[in-house]
Amino acid sequence: MNKKIKTDAVDHLFEAILTLKTPEECYTFFEDVCTVNELLSLSQRYEVAKMLREGRTYLEIAEKTGASTATISRVNRSLNYGNDGYDMVFKRLEEEKREG
User: Fold this and answer.
1) N- to C-terminal Cα distance for the chain?
2) Number of domains forming the structure of the chain
3) pTM score, whole prediction
4) For residue 1, what pLDDT is reported?
């Protein structure tokens, strides 16, 4: 965990996020918390991570998501050398899909 972001304020934000129960609630909350561009950037990075894990090429990812190669590279670095947060979420979503 990055100690630079570990603050009481970030803890409070994450506690608030954990109370959200539906995608509609997420839209309501995140539209208030983020700008449209911030939210679109976050979702773009997530899509890039999914596509990288699927073995897609940078060119395919750039064409499908509109992400720059710099963004794709940063996400790839997070996947390979980060805290495994993306993989944790991907694994849980896959488990839910199998159970559901």
Assistant:
1) 31
2) 1
3) 0.89
4) 65
Is residue 47, in this structure, part of any structural domain at all? yes
Residue 66 belongs to domain with CATH number: 1.10.1270.10
Range of the domain at 84: 34-99
Whether 29 maps to a domain, the answer reads no
The pLDDT-based confidence of 4 (bands split at 50, 70, 90) is confident
**Residue 23 is assigned to a structural domain of this protein:** no
Tokens, residue 45? 């990075």
Q: Is residue 18 included in any domain, yes or no?
A: no
pLDDT digit string (tens) for 16-50?
999 999 999 999 999 999 999 999 999 999 999 99
Q: Which residue has the higher pLDDT, 54 or 4?
A: 54
- 48-81 in b/e form (b: 16+ CB < 10 A) is bbbbbeeebebeebbeebebeeebbeebbebbee
